[in-house]
Design goal:
It is built from 1 helix and 5 strands, in the order E-H-E-E-E-E. It has 72 residues and is mainly beta. A 5-stranded antiparallel sheet has the order 4-3-2-1-5, with no helix packed on it.
Amino acid sequence: MYIYEVGCLVMLRNSHKDQRKGDKLIKRFLGPYAVEEYLGKGVYRLNNPGTGKVLQKSVSVCRLKEFHPRKV
């Protein structure tokens, strides 16, 4: 059950925004990040394509959204 392929660019939902009141100007999504590997049961490991560093924590699929770059 792969939803995102390895190498696909995704946005990560900022869960800090969900826990705070106010802060209307904080970004809802962070990224884009690249999918490093699929760990199973809807869990992914992400990396920052700009620096190449892998995020320490794995991420659930419910916090991800596919990234579509703007066409200029």
